[in-house]
């Protein structure tokens, strides 16, 4: 993560999402006060390739 930085906190998680559920078709973020959420929507076709390209572009 950020080796050597004492004020860094990182969390990792894995989830399973039912993409066919009506609530998950076009989800909207609902951040709390003072919370920042960036939503990045990518098609699931070639997902790993798309995520890799997005990461390389945004480094």
Automatic annotation (TrEMBL):
Lineage per the UniProt record: Eukaryota, Metazoa, Chordata, Craniata, Vertebrata
Protein name (database record): Uncharacterized protein
Organism annotation: Diceros bicornis minor (South-central black rhinoceros)
